[in-house]
Amino acid sequence: MVFDPTKAGKSLCACGMVSDTFGGLCDRCASLQTLGLGSHALPHDIESTYLTLVKVWHPDRFAHDQRLRTEAEEKLKEINAAHDYLLTHPKQEPPRPAPRTDKPPTPMEAGSLDFEGEETEGEETEEIRRIFRRRQKSKVPAILLKVGLAIGAVAVIVILWLTGDSILSSNALTSRAWDQLKLEVAHDFAVHFTSGASAQPQATPATPVAVPATPPATPPPPAVAPAGAAATNGNPGKHVQTVKPYITAGLSPTEVLSVLGTPTSSSGEKMFYNNSEIDFKNGQVSGWRIDPASPIRVKLWSDSSSVPGLTTFGIGSSKSDVIALQGTPTFFSENEFGYGNSRVFFQNNRVTGWKENSGSTPLRVAH
To answer: Where in the chain is the domain with CATH 1.10.287?
Structure first.
């Protein structure tokens, strides 16, 4: 009597060996399938494929990603178990020839991966590529998160700047120093990015930009009222309009227009703002005559340091000495400074004389 395994509750694997489950694989074919080999793989194919898979799935290659490392550890356990089984259970011939059937080959036979004749280097490279493609997909949300954080940081900086500007500008104790700092920053920006710009006096810029002259490390106190303060200049009780940034020597017509806007009138190299006058020479501010009641703010800074401990000026004193003692003149030309109705005269930037009006701003001259 011939033994029939199907009658004993068993089934045959495609290789002819008895399997533990109906329609399943024997232990050897299941181990070969774990390695991606067919049922007819030879021992050297098994060993070569095993070494390749160990390189591909070694956990140390995924030390930077804990999830991938865990998956690699589980996969390597399956590969080692299959290899150990194949070493300890060499291929055996079935007890009897497998019965002929007309059934199509099983999925394992049709889709098994045979490594015969293929180089293991190419297999390892393809597996690495698949792993890196999965990693690349996981990087996209991280990049979007970084972009969002950068945009948020910029927004926070802008909000802090606007809040600080509002607080400092509205405080009478800090508004003057804060306005001066903003003017210096605007000047530095203009020097690096807008230097050389020029236009006719009649042109009106679309976006006003205040550009003062560069102050020294310790500028003298300005001779005009700070923003938000009342200016007297011989006219007590009268408040000026909201002041604008400084006008200083060397500004171009475009820069003056950006600060003061369109003049009341202009003639040649002069701009008139009601009773005030701004003079130009070679395309730069060279002088002015400012009405005491005008909101226009002008500023001159010393070209050099004044004499330490200086309290008066006299014949031969420099313009820097006069500015340090008297402040910015309301009338300014190349060879003359005016403080109210008082005048100081220069030649080659040195004091040659003065005219003091007793009812006007006193001059700090040596008598």
So the answer is: 5-118
pTM, full prediction: 0.36
- And the tokens for 133? 């493609």
Residue closest to 132 by CA, chosen among 85, 64, 34: 64
**63-81 b/e with 16+ CB inside 10 Å = b?**
eeeeebeebbeeebeebee
Q: Which of 219, 365, 186, 353 is CA-nearest to residue 299?
A: 219
**Residue 143 is encoded by which pair of tokens?**
């990049």
* Enclosing H/E stretch for 255: helix 253-260
Q: DSSP states of 141-163 as a string?
A: HHHHHHHHHHHHHHHHHHHHHHH
Q: Are 286 and 249 in contact (CB under 8 A)?
A: yes
Q: In whole angstroms, how large is the CA radius of gyration of the chain? A: 46
User: What is the C-alpha to C-alpha distance for residues 11 and 20, in angstroms, rounded to an integer?
Assistant: 7
Confidence of residue 338 (pLDDT cuts 50, 70, 90): very high
What average pLDDT does the segment 61-81 reach? Answer: 88
Average pLDDT over residues 289-312: 84
pLDDT digits (tens, 9 = 90+) for 124-163: 667 677 776 766 666 667 788 888 889 999 999 999 989 9
Lowest model confidence (mean pLDDT) among 41-45, 91-95, 348-352, 356-360? 91-95
- Altogether, the residues listed in the chain come to a count of 367
CATH entry, 5-118, from 1.10.287, 1.10.10, 3.90.660, 1.10.1790? 1.10.287
Looking at residue 203, its amino acid is A
Q: Where are the beta strands (DSSP E) in the chain?
A: 11-12, 18-19, 265-267, 270-273, 276-281, 284-289, 331-333, 336-339, 342-347, 350-355
**CB within 8 Å of 25: residues ≥ 6 apart:** 13, 14, 19, 33, 108
CA–CA distance from 127 to each of 71, 73, 364 (Å)? 14, 16, 89
